[in-house]
Amino acid sequence: xxxxxxxxxxxxxxxxxxxxxxxxxxxxxxxxxxxxxxxxxxxxxxxxxxxxxxxxxxxxxxxxxxxxxxxxxxxxxxxxxxxxxxxxxxxxxxxxxxxxxxxxxxxxxxxxxxxxxxxxxxxx
Length: 124
Prior knowledge:
The protein is an alpha+beta fold. The chain has a single domain, classed as STM4215-like, CATH 3.30.2000.30. 21% of the residues lie in helices and 40% in strands. The chain contains two helices and seven strands; from the N terminus they run αβββββαββ. The strands form two sheets. The protein has a five-stranded mixed sheet. Strands 3-4 form a two-stranded antiparallel ribbon. Strand 3 (49-50) and strand 4 form a beta hairpin. The longest helix is centred in the middle third of the chain and has 14 residues, at 73-86. The radius of gyration is 15 Å and the shape is globular. It starts with a helix and ends with a strand.
């Protein structure tokens, strides 16, 4: 699956949870970010090996980090639960690999949950 298609799938699955505030790689700096919001970063994109080569982006399995950010800890936990409910509906098939990292950003005064998902395009 191409990076553009993967990005579109993530946006479609999660945008309604945060009024379309789903961003690739970074949150917008200007104007001041509005919370809650979700950021996704494609950590790796590994083509699936096949007998006649690899399928390139079309069969690449991708690891994606989601940062779920909110102004309060309770709001972050609620949004995190909503994200975990929405993500199994994404195509290609996706599995939650890590959901246990939490953080507080003193600069933005926000709470963050960091989750890693594996997208298995080779299983589509």
